[in-house]
């Protein structure tokens, strides 16, 4: 596999694991590579559907169906013999049924993923907080590029949702303490589960001041529209951030 093919595999892997819109994936580049070597489709399959992260924390069934349908179309257009591995994967997805919970995994520059469980519906349980919004992704990317601003800081995030921005910051920017906050009980429950899913321990006290080699993480109920000065003082944050609180 040459450098171009390796780069294409990496792009497909990253885009697939975070469920980037199917139409925005680099299909034209893949078509070109398949015209040279049709079996290259198996490498794409390996880096997406069969990737260890995808196997453990799969994207939604609908997303996987759409992805495999497009992958099959691209391979069929080459005129090559059908490959059993692709159709087997497609059959497994068809038989898996639809779940209300799915996973999105965002690959950090280190190669490590941040994985989030989220609801497949945009509005669920009376809130939009159970899915990842684009603003959270933008904040996460900006934080990685400016990680020195977060290093060894005590951070409060308003409207954390299911936790993408904060988990990326905790994983990539080494804050001393990070407090996730939201006001909806179902969101807070999912947020806690995502924090634990990514290997962090939860502190019961947002004002925890222990000195540890890893970030102290807490989740607290906080309505940013009605928070009091007393509540903010108790959290003792020296940096307050938010991605989507308009």
Automatic annotation (TrEMBL):
It comes from the Eukaryota. GO terms for biological process: methylation. GO terms for molecular function: methyltransferase activity. GO terms for cellular component: protein-containing complex. Residues 8-93 form the FAM86 N-terminal domain. Keywords: Methyltransferase, S-adenosyl-L-methionine, Transferase. Belongs to the class I-like SAM-binding methyltransferase superfamily. EEF2KMT family. This is FAM86 N-terminal domain-containing protein. It comes from Engystomops pustulosus (Tungara frog). The lineage of its organism: Eukaryota, Metazoa, Chordata, Craniata, Vertebrata.
């Amino acid at each position: 596999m040459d450098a171009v093919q390796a780069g294409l595999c990496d792009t497909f892997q990253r885009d697939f694991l975070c469920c980037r819109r199917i139409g925005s994936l680099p299909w034209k580049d893949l078509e070109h590579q398949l015209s040279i070597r049709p079996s290259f489709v198996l490498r794409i399959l390996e880096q997406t559907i069969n990737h260890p992260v995808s196997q453990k924390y799969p994207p939604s069934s609908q997303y996987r169906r759409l992805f495999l349908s497009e992958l099959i179309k691209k391979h069929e257009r080459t005129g090559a013999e059908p490959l059993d591995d692709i159709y087997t994967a497609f059959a497994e997805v068809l038989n898996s049924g639809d779940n209300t919970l799915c996973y999105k995994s965002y690959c950090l520059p280190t190669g490590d993923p941040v994985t989030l469980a989220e609801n497949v519906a945009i509005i669920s349980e009376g809130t939009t907080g159970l899915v990842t919004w684009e603003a959270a992704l933008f904040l996460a990317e900006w934080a990685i590029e400016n990680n020195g601003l977060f290093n060894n800081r005590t951070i409060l995030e308003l409207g954390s949702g299911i936790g993408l921005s904060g988990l990326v910051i905790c994983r990539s920017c080494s804050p001393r303490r990070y407090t996730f906050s939201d006001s909806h009980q179902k969101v807070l429950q999912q947020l806690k589960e995502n924090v634990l899913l990514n290997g962090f321990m939860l502190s019961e006290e947002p004002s925890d001041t222990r000195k540890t080699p890893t970030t102290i993480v807490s989740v607290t109920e906080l309505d940013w529209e009605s928070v009091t000065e007393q509540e903010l003082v108790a959290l003792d944050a020296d940096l307050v951030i938010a991605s989507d609180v308009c």
